[in-house]
Amino acid sequence: MLSTPGPITVPKFVGMKAAGSKIAMLTAYDFPTAALVDSAGVEGILVGDSVAMVVQGHSTTLPVTLDQMIYHAEMVGRAVRHALVVVDMPFPTYHLGIHRAIEAAGRILKETRCQAVKLEGGADQAEVIAALVSAGIPVMAHCGLRPQSVHQLGGYGVQRDRQRLMTDAAAAQEAGAFACVLECIPADIARDITASLRIPTIGIGAGPDCDGQVLVLHDLLGLTAGRVPRHVKAYADQQQQFVAAVAQYRDEVRNGAFPGPDQTFH
Ligand code: KIV
Q1: Candidates 3.40.50.460, 3.20.20.60, 3.40.640.10, 3.40.50.300; correct CATH number of 10-235?
Q2: Ligand 1 pocket by Cβ (under 6 Å)
Q3: Lesser CB count within 10 Å: N end or C end of the chain?
């Protein structure tokens, strides 16, 4: 473990902003990867609805269901000992009224060992955020690019409406959100939002001045096929390593080198 001992609670996560400690978050969707990400010492793990794209192979995050999110979150929750685990509320579970939002978020907390939910929205979701928070459910807001609104936005472009972004982040904080993801917005707007809020901002494509950063694990590991967005930094080329290992196995099966004496019982 590289980071502080003891599990990261919501108050500890929020307190990192006042302490001036940057917050590192990553996505994870299953038991073994969540255990590895957790053992590397990140403070937050997001069971993102990006699972729809990077694991299920869809072209948007829209198809993933609440039951599927719970399935993944349950595996992640079982693996994690240290990080705060946040689970995305899938589309449209929080657009159907406050009671259905509480029901959906309540299932996530009851059926997984995860501690918080994330939903896309700011001022437009203030009522839902406040209702979840008053039910004791910690909420991370998500402003800027909202991938669940891809069809309305017409793509995954950078969001530049400064006034709307400032208003959304402030409204999320006032409604009781404990943190706010800022996705794909200019760095100067993210810096100003971060300075104006008491709660931590977690950036993805929002420049270096956010209180923390989040990336999709498959992008960080170089496992994502094809072009990745500009804000991604691949810290490894596991796609190449993965294919090379499987190809070597295939060759050794063909030429009889596997199984060798070490893998053979007598
Ligand atoms: O689903 C996800 O992975 C996310 C991050 C990109 C913030 O929402």
Answers
A1: 3.20.20.60
A2: 27, 46, 48-50, 88, 181, 183, 204, 214, 216
A3: C
